[in-house]
Structure formats: structure tokens, C-alpha cells
């Protein structure tokens, strides 16, 4: 994930009107939300692929072993080691990919972004009793904080592999 220097984001540009800032902050929110939603979706698919592949190959290993026992001389002996190795590789990829952790962390970050936008739009929570200019500034700061936390969780998860 590419890290952005928060001071370069145009949302905090003091020369923009409040309407321009609102447009930009909503665009930035959408970009961040889409990023974490896509990352969660990709990791979820990857997790389920490895999970079900390993279950399927483990079942096929049992079936092949049974067929070799029943049809001793007629069943090719090379099939069992190949299927068994495939199951082992699938289980190894499931554990090594951290896809479940990345999926959960990305989904959590997306939910935090949704919550923050809801509070901002409703002028609730920390946005209560704030002027538009102050609310925009607070929302910008919160987006960057949530993004940095999400990135930190990703670095921690990937770094543990």
C-alpha cells in the first residue's frame, strides 16, 4: 500500500472554499473506502479459495487412498502423492498468505471510514456543535488517522509472515 504524506493532500488546502473542500474530502473518503473494500474483497476470495481447495484436496486424498486399497494393482500409484502434495501446498498457502487477517483488517478499516462519514454528515460525535470549517478539518484529520491505522495493521500482518 502506498503511503501518502498527509501534508500533501489538497483537502487541507486553506485556499479552497468550503464547498471545494467538501467535494475533495468526499472524493478522498471514496478513494480510501474503495481501496479498503477492494483489499478486503480480494483477501476474502483468496482465503476462501485456499480454504476450500485444501478441504477438497484432503477429501480427494482419502478417496484416492481408498480406491488404491480396493483396486490394488489397477489404480496408478502416482496419484496419491500428487493429490496429497497439492493438499499440503494449499494448506501452506492458506497459512502463509495471511489473507484472513488482511480481509478482517481491511473490512474493519472500511467500517471505521463509514462510521466516520456518517458522524460527519450527521454532525454528531466530535462534529457536534462544530462550524463547517472546523468539521471539515476534523474529518480530514480523522480520515488520515484511520488510513494510517489501516496501513499500520496491514504492515503488521504482512510483516508477521
What does this entry look like structurally?
There is one protein chain. The chain is mainly alpha-helical. The protein has two domains: about 40-95; about 100-160. It is built from four helices and no strands. It has helices at about 20-70, 80-95, 100-120, 130-160. Helix 1 runs antiparallel to helix 3 (about 100-120), helix 1 (about 20-70) runs parallel beside helix 4 (about 130-160) and helix 3 (about 100-120) packs antiparallel against helix 4 (about 130-160). The longest helix has about 55 residues, at about 20-70. The protein is rod-shaped, with a radius of gyration of 24 Å. The two termini are about 15 Å apart. Mean pLDDT is about 85; it is low at about 5-10.
- Unreliable spans are 6-11
Rg, Å, rounded? 24 Å
Largest sheet: number of strands, sense, barrel closure: none
The tally of domains stands at 2
Mean pLDDT figure: 87
Query: Please, how many helices?
Result: 4
N-to-C series of helices and strands: HHHH
Structural class of the secondary structure composition? mainly alpha
Provide keyphrases for this structure:
mainly alpha
In short:
The protein is mainly α and 161 residues long. Helices cover 77% and strands 0% of the residues. The longest helix is centred in the N-terminal third of the chain and has 53 residues, at 18-70.
